[in-house]
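Hi U.,

Before I forget, here's the chain from the pilot set. I'm dumping it here mostly so it's searchable later in email.
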Amino acid sequence: MLDLLEVAKGRLDDPDTGWNMGSFGAIAEFHHLVGDPPAEATGDLSRATARGGIRLDTLAGVRPIAFETLSPKPHRWSQAVALCLPEQEAIMNRRDKLTELGPDTAALRPEDDGAILFDMGLAQPQVDFCIRTSDLELLSVLRAAIGKSLFEQGNPAMGAILKAHPHRVALTRLGRVEVYQMIGGPDTGGKSPEGPHTHVLPKLLRAERTHSANTPIPDGWVPCAYFHPGNPVFDRVGADKDFDLEYFEAFQELLKPWGIAEYTSAKDAVWAALRAGESAEHHAEPETRLGRAGLRNAIRQWRRKEGDTSVVQTWAERFDRGTLETEDENPGH
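Structure:
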């Protein structure tokens, strides 16, 4: 039986494991950047670098859901573990206007204690998405906009935020992620910086969804944090790499107890058939979307692990020929 606390501690110290907290459209990510010093332990379940950090305040009542999602690229798949709470326990304040929360007394680093927190008013179910600043000029603009939507026409606050690049702080019932790097936009060449970063996407926010449709979270549960162990087929910056058997097997050990049976049973059935050299013609496609994802990922993983034999090629031709359903290489976004 896996111990979630011990797994979390190990993953916090693993530079190839990324973390995030947020909702569908507002997310704060903590990743270790290759070449940076190791993250500093700022608590038992708290880590920080010069670029950002994460703290898990509790794991009480958490249900871990391990899952794999299809990639648009037929030689890949993504993997993650969602840390979920029952819906009624996961919901945050859902403020829909810019709100001053006062000095931050729970910052990850001592030098950030006392800076002023503002809830951006994104009204998301399981995250209060905040900014934190001591910049007097930005504070003046923000305080003048309290009680207004950041997206209200003529509101100068969002422009001031993009110009000043304050810290972003995502608060959930499980803890927080802090990002100190610049906000992706005009000052960063239109893209998010590598390592810790945030995304706030107004179009997606309007859906008021807790997670992507491709993330298989059971009804009644809400993901409050995710961790993304090192992937066996692509690296931290998304580039293809040679198949990593150690990373593959490590995640399968999480998937066994924490995966959804509908998905894992579909994978197991494909692998059993391939081991026996059975033809794809004798295998029925699962009726559910999750089962079909399990079938297709099982084929992809067999090809990468065991080699591209004529037998597995017939399975791919029958069941994994291109993008048949919505796919997502960024689960949790």
